[in-house]
């Protein structure tokens, strides 16, 4: 399809480029052009041979086009446990509520349940998810069938999956289809033996590939690793060579100066999950310290059982708000920095380097934000509006790979939401024995 | 108008009453009936003389009807400064950005600018606002003209308004129209002389009326009062007799055990403003301690310059989330408690005792929540859904006093949003000199 979006405000997210009034053209899965009206005219004049016939011309009526948000950590199929295990201490939440339910979930269940999250991502302007769950092939199928971009890592640990499976996922999911890719990783230090991690390090070196895991989410996780190995999880992983080709960690709430030195040295990304860390009382991540060290930060919602909302607007507010509270400084972490985390940094940590900016040649993973909602008025500063007063209700359109998957409240993922919900209800009844 | 809402899930907010499937009938500005289908049939049989002809019958399709949210602290006209004064320390925010702009605002400006907030309240299912701003009469006009319920207090201080005006507001705004009422109050201890507060105490005793103010929002405000009077603001206000007939405070972030004893003894409400306290780095209010003392808590967004979002869903998540973080306990402050704060407690602290429950005889201040959005699926626990994954985007309808003011994204407040935004742009240009 060839789309011409005109009469738009455009935020490309390129460094130093302010929001401008102009046009964005999409051809197939890529951005063909983004620029001012004047630049559009100049382009047409200088490329008379390229004159395009549009399948659709969309008057944006002054609304904002920008790159989609990248949800840099989630477990999509955990919709099953949303609102069924809240207001509980973390250990009870995991051991008494989550693990027993997960033991009953099939690959097919996970396929169906992931779709509810995909619908929610679309409503929040999210165009890619960095996913980790039990059955990577059925997860990849769900994302492919919905036309939603997914980068997965595994949750290999002592009790499920294996390093052999990890390599299989890596080899088979990369390049399998246009929506899926796979990055090496494990669940976490506290669920993996040293032997398992050493085998992972061999894979990391074999493929010269980055490595990811849940890292230092809670204080006790960090302390227990110190007790076991005399090192923090970051130090321990690094000592095994797991970070020799970069990568990063999810959560990273409890890190020391020494941890951050390693992160900086290895070029690691910190994916922060403030909604989940808040609801599970895990703590507030040292975002200010990461930025001061030059460690890039991206943002994830975590799964719907621990957040429970898959909403990048809530997460963006929390990233800066919690940093302000932690440092007792209202000037801490400017809105523009947060917006970069939710878009550019998210894309790069997931290896989606073509989904960072809204410029020629990049993937057409783009959203339209309604500026005529009262929470955006009057228009004083759009970047601050997005981070401080923006909401899911401002998302008018979510496009992935040049296909509009969500527009004006309607979904286009090949299946009606009510069908997806009905299947989830059946799974719920079977698993919970209701 | 006579509305019959059927095929609904109904949450009346009465203690001990679970959500049921049933009907709600609205006649004029009141709830005529709420109950199960069976109770509706029984009612019809036993009241054959009362059989109603409906103006409209609305199939709720399983969506949820519940009392509207009560925004228990705001400054609506501060939309003007939204996103124009962010990421600044509190003192710079107030003295360099807010006060100089406020000095240029007319009563007419405040009338127009308040309407943007009223639109936003409607999108978030808010049906009443506890308002404080510079020109109470023009604020009251804005709320009346939009058909939105407003309870005001004054922001009397050493520099604007006066105790004489306070009494005038109290006498003239109470009973003036069906949407407005007025409660005695001042801006804050740190902006009011002892003499001014003593005169207020005379009014409190003359009218045997509750008293409100911003109280102990920041640590420095509390310390400075200790330096001035050897007492915290709560102790000081109480020593002047200002709380002899109850009332409460906004923010109340920095309170001691002794403050809470006074609050409990005087029957004060604590209105918490977690979004604002987060963004301005004021701190985390001791909500757990308030509940343990039996002090009722209500929730306010604060104004759009300090939050910047007027969204009760964000506030509800923050109330429990920040309490969980502060106490490092994921089981702290159950979702049901938060929902009560946002509805029942809000209504009562504002003196809107007829707007607490969705039951016969109560005001028809009611909202409809979309259960078919993906963030509500699968439906495991609706109360937890509302607090943890709910969003503005779930608000299908907002009714105030039996009139539908917002439905399916359309407003009904006597003026089109775009007209309101255009007026705000003009005011902005004049005041900021753009």
UniProtKB/TrEMBL annotation, chains A, B:
Which residue intervals define the domain Amidohydrolase-related in the entry?
Answer: 65-404
The reply to whether 4Fe-4S figures as a keyword in the UniProt entry is no
The record's listing under InterPro entries reads: Amidohydro-rel, Metal-dep_hydrolase_composite, Metal_Hydrolase, MTA/SAH_deaminase
In which domain of life is the source organism classified? Bacteria
| GO molecular function list | hydrolase activity, acting on carbon-nitrogen (but not peptide) bonds
Keyword entries, A-Z: Hydrolase
Q: Which PANTHER family match?
A: AMIDOHYDROLASE-RELATED DOMAIN-CONTAINING PROTEIN, AMINOHYDROLASE SSNA-RELATED
Name assigned to this protein: Amidohydrolase
């Amino acid at each position: 399809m060839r789309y011409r979006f005109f009469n738009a405000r455009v935020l490309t997210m390129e460094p130093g480029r302010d929001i401008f009034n102009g046009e964005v053209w999409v051809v197939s899965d890529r951005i063909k052009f983004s620029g001012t009206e004047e630049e559009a005219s100049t382009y047409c004049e200088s490329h008379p041979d390229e004159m395009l016939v549009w399948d659709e011309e969309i008057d944006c009526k002054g609304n904002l086009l920008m790159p989609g948000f990248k949800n840099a950590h989630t477990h999509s199929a955990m919709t099953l446990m949303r609102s069924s295990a809240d207001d509980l201490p973390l250990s009870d939440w995991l051991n008494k509520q989550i693990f027993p339910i997960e033991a009953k979930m099939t690959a097919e269940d996970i396929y169906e349940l992931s779709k509810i999250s995909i619908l929610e991502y679309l409503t929040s302007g999210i165009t890619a998810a960095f996913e980790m769950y039990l059955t990577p092939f059925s997860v990849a199928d769900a994302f492919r069938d919905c036309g939603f971009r997914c980068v997965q890592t595994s949750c290999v640990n002592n009790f499920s999956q294996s390093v052999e499976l990890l390599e299989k996922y890596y080899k088979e999911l990369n390049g399998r289809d246009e929506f899926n890719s796979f990055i090496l990783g494990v669940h976490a230090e506290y669920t993996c033996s040293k032997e398992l991690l050493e085998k992972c390090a061999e894979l990391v070196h074999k493929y010269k590939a980055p490595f990811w895991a849940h890292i230092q989410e809670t204080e006790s996780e960090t302390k227990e690793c110190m007790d076991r190995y005399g090192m923090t999880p970051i130090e321990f992983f690094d000592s095994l060579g797991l970070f020799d080709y970069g990568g990063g960690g999810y959560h990273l709430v409890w890190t020391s100066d020494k941890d951050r030195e390693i992160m900086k040295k290895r070029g690691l990304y910190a994916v922060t999950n403030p909604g989940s860390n808040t609801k599970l009382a895990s703590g507030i991540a040292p975002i200010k310290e990461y930025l001061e060290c030059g460690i890039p930060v991206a943002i994830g919602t975590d799964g719907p059982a621990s957040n429970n909302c898959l909403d990048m607007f809530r997460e963006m507010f929390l990233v800066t708000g919690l940093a302000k509270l932690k440092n007792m400084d209202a000037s801490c972490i400017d809105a523009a920095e947060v917006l970069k985390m939710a878009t550019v940094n998210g894309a790069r940590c997931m290896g989606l380097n073509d989904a960072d900016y809204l410029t020629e040649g990049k993937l057409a993973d783009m959203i339209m934000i309604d500026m005529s909602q009262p929470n955006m008025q009057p228009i004083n500063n759009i970047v601050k509006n997005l981070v401080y007063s923006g909401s899911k209700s401002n998302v008018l359109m979510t496009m992935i790979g040049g296909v509009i998957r969500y527009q004006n409240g309607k979904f286009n993922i090949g299946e009606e939401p009510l069908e997806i919900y009905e299947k989830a209800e059946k799974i719920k009844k079977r698993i919970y024995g209701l």
